[in-house]
Amino acid sequence: MRFYSPGKLLITAEYAVLDGAQALCLPTKKGQSLTIQENNLGVINWMSKDENDKIWFQDQFKKDSLGIKSTSEYKISESEKESAISARCIQIITAAEELSGQHLFEKGYDILTELEFNRNWGLGTSSTLINNLAQWLKIDPYVLLNKTFKGSGYDIACAQADSPITYERKKNTQISLKADFEPGFSDHIYFVYLNQKQNSREGIAHYRKRTVDDREILIEKVSNITQQLIKCDNLAEYDLLINIHENLISKALNLPKVKTRLFPDYEGSIKSLGAWGGDFIMVTAKNDPTLYFKEKGFEVVIPYSQMIL
């Protein structure tokens, strides 16, 4: 059995999506697959490969009266990071068993995950895994996400999409709708990797310090920008909207904009995507900006047409 989910980029409403702001989300052309095979050994053999077909994680899990345990001799290494990944796998398997009502260790399975993108890019290594597992076990991916990685759920919605969507989280309900987002100026939009994977906890902590009234105003403004971006038909207006969005989130987080911090001399517009400070940024340019960013040490510059599904 093989399952597949595309990756994701959050174009608008970073942080504010946690409180119900409407976000524009784009599934990516590259994603992650999950291949499942019964082994009848009563164990789960887990192997994860990167975009170069290289094994980046491997372990075996057994279950006894004390719970699920890692069989350390199957690990690639005994590093602290490796142990953390094993612990996360155990958490996921435990939640998946609970939600599905299945006893996965009665038969045992070989699980293979295969990425199409660099796992440091922040395109959804975790969310594509959760969605693939949910497809296999026929469980609610949002509930599985909440029991494991948490988050707003927009990445799960993207993992289930084949075109741009809007996403809102309202109490215990997720609203995902197809968005008619086909910018005629997409050849002027690029995505640049900032050479580091960003943990969003710091930004979320800053955001949570905002008063409720401030957050409600922010949610309304950001949601309006999402709708205006979808309808936008020229690059100048698009630039204006993403600049306004950057100013709003910068104020909410009390953090400098990425353009101010890293690219003050850049002529086009720049917008952070997802967690501020890492992963990808979206930039606009009248001409191919690859040389500009490479001269500053940022080698990964991907045109819209090559990134977005």
From TrEMBL:
This is GHMP kinase. Gene3D superfamilies: 3.30.230.10. The keyword Kinase applies. Signal peptide: none annotated. One of its GO terms (molecular function) is kinase activity. InterPro entries: GHMP_GYDIA-like, Ribosomal_Su5_D2-typ_SF, Ribsml_uS5_D2-typ_fold_subgr. It comes from Zunongwangia pacifica. The keyword Metal-binding does not apply.
